Amino acid sequence: MPRPVSAHPPLPQPSSLVPPIYARLLRMLLQHADVDGDRVLAEAGLDWATLVTDDKRLGRDTIVRLAEGAMAATRRPWLGLDLGGGAPVSAHGALGYAVVTSRDLREAMLTLARYGTTRNDAMAWTCVESREGMTMHAAERTALGSVRGFVVDTVLGAILRMIETAVGQVPAAIRIDLPLPVPAWRDQYQRFGVAEVRFDQPAFAFHFTPPDLALPCIGADAKAHASACRECEEALAEVAGASMAQRVAGLLASVDDGAYPRMADVAARCGISSRTLIRRLHEDGATFQQLLDAARKQRALWMLMHTAEPVEEIAARLGYADTSNFSRTVRRWFGATPRELREARDRPGA
Questions:
Q1: Contact, 269 vs 251, CB < 8 A?
Q2: Cystine design at 276: which of 7, 99, 101, 272 (Cβ 3.0–4.6 Å)?
Q3: Domains present along the chain, CATH in parentheses
Q4: pTM of the predicted model, to two decimals?
């Protein structure tokens, strides 16, 4: 009977997902494609000067804007494969070093599964081992909407690049399951030379055979591996130690269609009572309503500036039954009505 061989400490719903190194790499990729990477960054609310000096992790909405802008600018829906497949192991920090200094591919994948959230908090990995080999599958921890495929492809490319660096090759027998529909550009996946890529699967997963798991890592180094793992443990503790306000903000930020949960529902998701949630948020200097308003504010601006949906529909999706009330709220937030914001957006040179 298959048995799980790696486990995670309980993890909060993420509010910040990835380190800024991946946005830096994406900007370089855009520049090489003769695309104005700085403009794409600006449209996502980022700038290069800050990006190269600030280690603050990027949140869900920033990632969505950045990925949407990059794919639109390059006209490459497979851009995630380019980004992940081109990322050097050093881009993954201590996790990358822990993987490539493992004893063999089995230890490398167990290491990646345990510490993967330290580099991408949108997915938590689990390994299950049986006589047929090992399956490493992801549990998606936040809704990524229109860029889900981009993120999955980026992770796919990055993992295969780490495997290639670790053992000197991408074993041809690897099979990959993707929870994505079959794309018109499916031939792009052939670049990795794996046995099979299956679409429309229930979960994102890698399947390894026993012979592949036994492949030795070229850079195997027990001391270096132990040192990198210690650093990863510290990073994992930071991820697991997110404040209650961060957990609630992450949960609210993952809502796509405005069906924001009630405080009681959020408390249940966090495994506590509503009264305890109120107290814990108070300790963090926040209230549920403040966090809900912040999530709605960020989503409202994004939808007004980047979609053509009618204001009435945006208001409804954000939970406002009265459009005029929504317009007054937008004016209070941004000093302009929804119509004025869109007119400014559409003005030549804006």
A1: yes
A2: 272
A3: 3-237 (3.90.1520), 244-346 (1.10.10.60)
A4: 0.69
